[in-house]
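Q: I'm writing up a methods section and want to include an example of the input and output format. Could you take the sequence below and give the corresponding predicted structure tokens, formatted cleanly so I can copy it straight into the document?
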Amino acid sequence: MRSLLLLLLVCLSVSGFSQVVTADRSVLDKRTGAGMYTEIKPKLENPNARAYYMEQQWQLGNIEYEGEKIISNQPLKYDIVRQWMEIKMDDEIMVLPARTIDSFEWFNNTTSTATKFIKTRGFEMDGDIPPVGFFEVLFDGEVQLLSHKSVQIFHANSSVSVSGSHRSHNIVYLEHYYLAKGNKLYKLHKKRKHNLYLFGDKQDQVVRFARKKGLLFSRRADLQQIFLYYNSLI
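A: Here is the clean output for your methods example:
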């Protein structure tokens, strides 16, 4: 039974874009007139502003926003600092505010898989608040493994967590991992011992598995194996 569950979870985690419908610019123009895409605006270039993208290259992907609207099969870039999605349509770049986006995904031609992102709003943390923006879904099961990326700018004598666009000297991209059970969210620590309580009565089995495989809680590929194993136990 556990072997069957493992196989099923692996199959579910690998998804393609076989059902994608292209939304070209002419269709978007017509829908804008009907009030379908009123949040999408042309990008206004600012020569003094710097973009901080989640991925530097354009990614072909889909967006679900405002509950039921979908943009499919378009080149995308997400700006972490400005908190908007850039959408390449013909020779023009449009932007969609992050507050309107429910989820998005982009396709990796090299691995033939889709990477999914979900909004951080709606999750709850004890004694803390969820980060702003989107989680990357690294493992999707009864218990999810999520990743969040942010940007920190280091100025001459201080460091500032970015919520707007600024000139900077040094830039660091930060990534933190989270465990999600339903809408409950728990930040993972790099040290194994601080995370064990999250696995309840399965923690001894998780420890033995991680030790046997040499897996660390500080590496995403290792965490994916740990969560795959843990979900097979529950």
